[in-house]
Amino acid sequence: MESKVKEMIAKLEAIAQEKDGLGLKAGDGEKPSPRSASTSLVDESCVYGRDEIKEEMEHFDLKAWVCVSTEFLLLEVTKSILAAIGCRPTKDDSLDLLQRQPKESLVNKNFLLVLDDVWDVESFGWESWDSLRTPLIGAAQGSKILVTSRDESVAKTMRAVCTHPLGELNPPHCWSLFESMHFKIETPTHALSLNP
Predict the structure, then answer these.
(1) For the whole prediction, is pTM greater than 0.70?
(2) In degrees rounded to 5, what are phi and psi of residue 73?
(3) Residue ranges of the NB-ARC domain (predicted)?
């Protein structure tokens, strides 16, 4: 038994030396790739499919888009929401003062808030979600908060009313997208007349 333990220790020491020789450190490994910066500004002519959804969005008094991304920091997300709905956040970092602004600004307004790319469930517990949601409750009935995520557990944490896995584009919309990307066509085929 003692010889097997010595043999195992020798193997571990050899692995440790090999690790040091390669310059590897504890904690090295695969890390999620950083998300590139994104914006809510979109050239509507470049959006393919989802026409019904675009029409449904027209009835909102206010539309706001906030990229949450890797880490859900309640104070930072609240500030981003304020900026997106046109409020000037106070210089004070008091969550209470910051959350009074959207509550006052959204009274009786119908809004759509998109929280884009929420994916850190560990830092985003249901307590954070409730704290974020509370000042938005006074808005008009029919207001919506839409959350996009790569992780289904985010929907569970947020106690989503319903989830919508993003479906595929239909073939004509796929072709239009392909044409515009590959051929750099200004006007997609579906807008051109094929008759001479």
Answers:
(1) no
(2) -105, 110
(3) 54-184
